[in-house]
């Protein structure tokens, strides 16, 4: 994982587009040809990181929030992830690079889709995928421009959740009631638990990118 961790740090600090394979090889003190033996293209490295991060982010919910409904778990997860990005600029920079790539956005959606199905979100897979892609793409576009738009992180998270479940056929009143029921979890205490889990279980070294 040393190569992946080094590349992750470079991507997060400098931006995916500004880092070349030779830069990663130099930072890892290996030849470019050896690097390409393991990772033929730069996007393969980014894809590996994306999968590791996404799966790691779900561990807290999978172990600590199992008593809650799938609705509540998705809403809490979205709130925590957006807060983490808001408080950690290098991670936001990294995730923004992901959303600028249609291929990687699709990959994130697919990994998330597997998790949604695993926790019991109801609906046909194609419809859940459509709803997720629509809600995330629109919501994250607002998130990355939140300072210009003066939009709060909490409001953006709520809108993403609402768009997702409305597309799955739920009514606004039910969605609002479920969102209110998650309020006790959207606190510093539970958020810090989430961050601690992320640091503990992530295969990527997040010590620099995510503060505790």
Automatic annotation (TrEMBL):
It holds the Pfam family TetR_N. It comes from the Bacteria. InterPro entries: Homeodomain-like_sf, HTH_TetR. Residues 1-57 form the HTH tetR-type domain. One of its GO terms (molecular function) is DNA binding. It comes from Lactiplantibacillus plantarum 2025. This is TetR family transcriptional regulator. The keyword Oxidoreductase does not apply. Residues 20-39 bind DNA. The keyword Signal does not apply. Keywords: DNA-binding.
């Amino acid at each position: 994982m040393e190569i992946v961790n080094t590349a992750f740090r470079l991507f997060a600090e400098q931006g995916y587009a500004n880092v070349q394979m030779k830069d990663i090889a130099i930072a890892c003190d290996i030849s470019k040809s050896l690097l390409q033996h393991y990772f033929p293209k730069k996007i393969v490295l980014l894809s590996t990181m994306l999968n590791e991060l996404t799966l790691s982010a779900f561990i807290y919910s999978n172990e600590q929030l199992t008593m809650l409904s799938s609705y509540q778990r998705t809403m809490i997860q979205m709130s925590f992830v957006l807060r983490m990005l808001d408080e950690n600029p290098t991670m936001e920079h990294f995730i923004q690079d992901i959303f600028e790539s249609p291929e990687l956005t699709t990959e994130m959606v697919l990994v998330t889709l597997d998790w949604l199905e695993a926790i019991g979100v109801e609906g046909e897979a194609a419809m859940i995928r459509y709803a997720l892609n629509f809600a995330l793409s629109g919501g994250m576009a607002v998130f990355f421009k939140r300072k210009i738009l003066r939009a709060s992180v909490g409001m953006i998270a709520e809108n993403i959740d609402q768009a997702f479940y409305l597309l799955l056929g739920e009514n606004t009143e039910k969605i609002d009631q479920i969102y209110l029921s998650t309020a006790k979890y959207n606190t510093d205490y539970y958020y810090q638990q989430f961050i601690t889990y992320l640091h503990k279980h992530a295969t990527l070294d997040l010590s620099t990118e995510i503060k505790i």
